Write the structure tokens for this entry.
Amino acid sequence: MLSRKIAQSLLPLETPFYLYDMGLLRLTLESAVAMAARYGFVLHYAVKANYDPRVLKMIREFGLGADCASGGEVRCAIEAGFDPSKIVYAGVGKKDSEIRYAIEQGIFAINCESLEEISVVDRIASELGVKVRIALRVNPDIDPKTNHCIDTGQADSKFGISYEEILANAPLIQSYKNVEVRGMHLHIGSQIRELHVFEYLCNKVNVIVENLVGLGFTLDFVDVGGGLGINYDVPENEPVPNFASVFAIINSHLNVGGREVHFEFGRAIVGQCGELITRVLYNKTTATGRKLVIVDSSMTELIRPALYGSYHNIENITSDAQKSERYTIVGTACESTDKFDENVTLPETHRGDLLTIKSAGAYGQSMSSTYNLHPLPRSVYSDEL
Ligand SMILES: *Cc1c(COP(=O)(O)O)cnc(C)c1O
């Protein structure tokens, strides 16, 4: 990862901060865009993964659309210059004011997640005197074989409308005068590393689309969501995710006629380009003999380990000690779960050393909070150093 190469220039900076490798973000986008172009696939970026302004700007410059999960994200995407005609808005709990705002902006589609929501969108659209494009977010009941904190497409999940409910209510959905069902959407979960899951997804989508069309829906696009995982264990082995394989799988298994195929990746675009750089404050040993390294960041900067038990690879980028030790890396917050990792083998680590917590570009800074009145972490960009 970049931080080790430029550790000396990072040393004087105030910590903690997110370091963004803008060169790697560029490479990742070049790969995603080139591979998608082979098949004419349309790419959106899931804004919630990271909405740092420079990160968003580069993603927009590569021509991706924006997949938003709140009115605030729609606003953020518009302010970052995304064309409203390339913005989609999903989410189980859209407030009336958010729906109204999205409709007023003329976004590409609202991905509806309940029958009740469709009726609300219809009412607001009729108040505004417009017809709104929507997609039905279908719950396909698929196990994405990932951490179940982040699966979103199994039968009991809060996301999407059950397929059976759509089948049973097709005439009702078609009766609304101010909504037009133009697409079908699903997103089964995040950090999917077993790519055959995408094959299974295609088989389900093929059946769903065929049946919806049979019921009289005219679908122009099929949005198969995001979810492509990244290599957290050894990020150096796979700095750019394997877009080629996913697209090849989708291309050979998806059978939806000439309909546009959309993707909305978050983690795969930004996950590897961000690292959380943090400084060692103290060493201490517990009564049980566990060696703790206390760093100057916490779950307030990066909550994934505390929230999902997620693993991030950690490295000491400034120590050249020969001897190594096993450490538990803990943060400053007043919570026992505020721990970045256990049994981490690092060169002997001292106060003032810099650690990198790698693969933190997705759901890192965007999930940060001000708990304990910590300031929100700032961004440092590789091309501004
Ligand atoms: C979060 C989300 C995504 C992006 O997921 P990644 O795993 O980061 O690719 C895409 N679509 C929807 C609807 C989402 O909620």
About this structure: Residues 196-214 form the longest helix (19 residues).
